[in-house]
């Protein structure tokens, strides 16, 4: 646990919204990441190049250990690349973090147990000194957006896993970020809740017009949500292939039954298998 | 509830219906414990040999005479009788209560000082890892110094303190010694609490680009509450013990420690009287620890356990 005493700078001023005219949300150029471990150096990412356009939904998929979460953490400035550069809305990743240009959600909801649903969503706003009246109306909007109006005064331990995750997503949207970073946010949910949450995320993204970098294990999830799917391979983590989803713009539940959907699932699966039709890939759920 | 809100099973609202019954059972068990203890006392007094049991010149079981082991009812009856035969003498229970209140005040002052020092040390140790390595062994070591040896030294140092119109009072020495016992659980418990937030919470605060101070206020201190409460209860009990022992060893008048010694000296003539201050000391400890329970119910929202998705 490091104490980031230098971070106070960003909290005093209101975050500047990135100009929506900027064409790219994230630019990753030649990024390497090497972890120093006791048994020597481990190369987690090698020569990663990736551009995420504003408003684009990009999923990172690959077996365990392919560095997809690491890549997301680098974009979030929770970790620094060993070499190469990352820019977010034309700024350094660090500056983008200080300016609150992105919202983030993890596999665990990470709600503060002593705060109510409303107070959890409000957390980033109150930390950044937003006026109380503005906070209240924004929290009201977000609770409505994630469909938890009747649960505003509940505490996290009174909510189901799916509801907790919705609160976390509402919290990540609190400051109207133009970029959402999501690390397997539905990974711990059951299949039915998961599909419903996916549909809601599609709707939320359409409303907020935010770009999304979405880390997942699940091929159908990536296909259903994404404009492009970045297929990664492990040891060291590399971008194997980027598959553009040729699917209708409006993603509804009916899409899950369509041929085009299954074609895309097959395309991603084959990319994961490096084109060879192997029956299964370890660490990737084919659901 | 709208249909969109129905993801997953309905939220399980914690049922509190069983709580009053459990509360009653806890009180019942406490009373039962006292009854068992009292019965054992009276049973041994009834059945045990009047001169105790002596094996190879060592008495391994105590005498059961009224002088050595007064009846429980005699002890209780003695509480309502006057302290001495002198006219206008207060009943024993009142004398004990007054002394206990004085000691409670001193212990409370020591507890507050211990709280401030303990939390302060914990904050320093959380902020700088080096401080934790440097300080924690000394904090643990500080508790190995015997209090009895320590108390007269504090008193003689205190007697020399005089800053302007401020003059060191004897009760301050006692409070200081009480705080010396109280700060330890607070320092250790608070440090553990401040370090308890999950990595995910700490990283979340980092993504919000807030510094150590705001992370402390919004994350670490609230997260420390479940660790702090038992530490404060322990500190309260320690402060009472520290205050009583320090009263005895510094010879401070007016507190329960003093009459504890005084009445014990009169036990050969009035064996039941010595038990008055002992009961008083027990009630004192319970009151001190019980007041923390009140604090705990005020802070109950900070004691919710996190349930992961």
Structure, explained:
The complex is a heterodimer of chains A (about 290) and B (about 300). With about 290 residues, chain A is an alpha/beta fold. Chain A has two domains: about 20-100 and about 175-285, 3-Layer(aba) Sandwich (Rossmann fold), CATH 3.40.50.300; about 110-175, no CATH class. Chain A contains nine helices and ten strands. In chain A, β1 (about 25-35) and β2 form a beta hairpin. Chain B has two domains: about 25-50 and about 60-70; about 90-305, MetI-like (MetI-like fold), CATH 1.10.3720. Chain B has helices spanning about 20-45, 70-80, 90-125, 130-140, 145-160, 170-195, 200-205, 210-250, 255-265, 275-300; strands spanning about 55, 60, 160-165, 165. The longest helix of chain B is centred in the C-terminal third of the chain and has 39 residues, at about 210-250. Chain B starts with 18 loop residues before the first helix and ends in an 11-residue tail after the last helix. At the A-B interface, α1, α4, α6 and α7 of A face α7 and α8 of B.
Task: Please write out the topology.
The complex is a heterodimer of chains A (287) and B (309).
Chain A: H1 8-12, E1 24-37, E2 40-53, E3 57-61, H2 68-75, E4 83-88, E5 91-92, H3 93-98, E6 102-105, H4 117-127, H5 132-145, H6 161-172, E7 179-183, H7 191-208, E8 211-216, H8 219-225, E9 228-233, E10 238-244, H9 259-272
Parallel strand pairs in A: 3-8, 3-9, 6-7, 7-8
Antiparallel strand pairs in A: 1-2, 1-4, 4-5, 9-10
Chain B: H1 19-47, E1 53-55, E2 58-61, H2 72-80, H3 92-127, H4 129-142, H5 147-159, E3 162-163, E4 166-167, H6 170-194, H7 199-207, H8 212-250, H9 256-265, H10 275-298
Antiparallel strand pairs in B: 1-2, 3-4
Helix pairs in contact in B: 3-4, 3-6, 3-8, 3-10, 5-6, 5-8, 6-8, 8-9, 8-10, 9-10
Note the main sheet of chain B.
2 strands, antiparallel
Give the N-terminus to C-terminus distance of chain A in angstroms.
36 Å
Average residue-wise pLDDT of chain A: 81
Counting helices, strands and paired strands, the structural category of chain A is alpha/beta
The name of the CATH architecture of the largest domain in chain B is Orthogonal Bundle
Mean pLDDT across the residues of chain B is: 83
Q: Give the spatial strand order of the biggest sheet of chain A.
A: 6-7-8-3-9-10
What's the CATH class of the largest domain in chain A, please?
A: Alpha Beta
Distance between the termini of chain B: 21 Å
Order of secondary-structure elements of chain A: HEEEHEEHEHHHEHEHEEH
Element-by-element helix/strand order of chain B: HEEHHHHEEHHHHH
Please give the count of helices of chain B.
10
Question: What is the CATH topology of the largest domain in chain A?
Answer: Rossmann fold
Can you tell me the overall shape of chain B? Answer: globular
SS elements, strand count of chain A: 10
């Amino acid at each position: 646990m490091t104490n980031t005493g230098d971070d106070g700078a960003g909290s005093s001023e209101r975050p500047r919204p990135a100009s929506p005219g900027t064409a790219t949300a994230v630019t990753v150029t030649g990024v390497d990441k090497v972890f120093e471990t006791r048994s020597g150096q481990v190369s987690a990412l090698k020569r990663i190049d990736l551009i995420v356009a504003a408003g684009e939904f990009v999923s990172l998929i690959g077996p365990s250990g392919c560095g997809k979460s690491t890549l997301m953490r680098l974009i979030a400035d929770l970790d620094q690349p060993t070499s190469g550069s990352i820019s977010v809305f034309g700024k350094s990743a660090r500056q983008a973090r200080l300016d609150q240009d992105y919202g983030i959600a993890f596999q665990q909801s990470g709600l503060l147990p002593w705060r109510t649903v409303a107070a959890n969503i409000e957390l980033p706003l109150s930390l950044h000194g937003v006026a109380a009246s503005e906070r209240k109306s924004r929290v009201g909007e977000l609770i409505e957006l994630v469909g938890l109006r009747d649960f505003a005064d509940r505490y996290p331990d009174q909510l189901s896993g799916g509801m907790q995750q919705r609160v976390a997503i509402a919290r990540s949207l609190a400051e109207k970020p133009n970029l959402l970073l999501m690390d397997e946010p539905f990974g711990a949910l059951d299949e039915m809740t998961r599909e419903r949450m996916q549909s809601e995320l599609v709707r939320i993204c359409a409303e907020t017009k935010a770009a999304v970098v979405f880390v997942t294990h699940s091929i159908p999830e990536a296909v259903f949500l994404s404009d492009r799917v970045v297929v990664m391979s492990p040891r060291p983590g590399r971008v194997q292939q980027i598959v553009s989803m040729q699917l209708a713009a409006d993603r509804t539940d009916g899409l899950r039954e369509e041929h085009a959907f299954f074609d895309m699932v097959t395309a991603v699966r084959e990319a994961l298998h490096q084109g060879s039709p192997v029956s299964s890939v370890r660490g990737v759920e084919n659901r | 509830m709208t249909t969109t809100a129905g993801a997953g099973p309905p939220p399980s609202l914690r049922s509190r219906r069983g709580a009053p019954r459990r509360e009653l059972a806890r009180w019942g068990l406490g009373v039962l414990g006292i009854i068992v203890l009292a019965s054992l006392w009276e049973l041994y007094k009834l059945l045990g040999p009047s001169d105790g049991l002596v094996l190879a010149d060592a008495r391994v079981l105590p005498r059961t005479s009224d002088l050595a082991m007064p009846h429980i009812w005699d002890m209780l009856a003695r509480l309502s009788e006057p302290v001495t035969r002198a006219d206008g003498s207060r009943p024993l229970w009142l004398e004990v209560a007054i002394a206990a209140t004085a000691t409670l005040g001193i212990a409370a002052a020591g507890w507050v000082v211990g709280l401030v020092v303990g939390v302060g040390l914990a904050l320093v140790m959380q902020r700088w890892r080096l401080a934790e390595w440097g300080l924690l062994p000394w904090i643990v070591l500080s508790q190995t110094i015997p209090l009895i040896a320590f108390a007269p030294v504090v008193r003689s140092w205190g007697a020399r303190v005089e800053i302007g119109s401020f003059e060191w009072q004897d009760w301050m020495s006692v409070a200081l010694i009480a705080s010396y016992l109280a700060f330890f659980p607070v320092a250790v418990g608070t440090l553990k609490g401040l370090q308890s937030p999950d990595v995910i919470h700490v990283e979340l605060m980092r993504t919000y680009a807030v510094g150590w101070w705001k992370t402390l206020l919004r994350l670490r201190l609230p997260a420390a509450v479940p660790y702090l409460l038992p530490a404060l209860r322990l500190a309260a009990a320690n402060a009472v013990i520290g205050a009583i022992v320090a009263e005895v060893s510094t010879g401070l008048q007016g507190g329960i420690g003093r009459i504890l010694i005084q009445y014990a000296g009169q036990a050969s003539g009035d064996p039941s009287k010595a038990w008055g201050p002992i009961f008083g000391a027990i009630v004192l400890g319970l009151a001190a620890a019980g007041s923390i329970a009140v604090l705990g119910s005020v802070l109950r929202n900070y004691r919710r356990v996190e349930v992961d998705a």
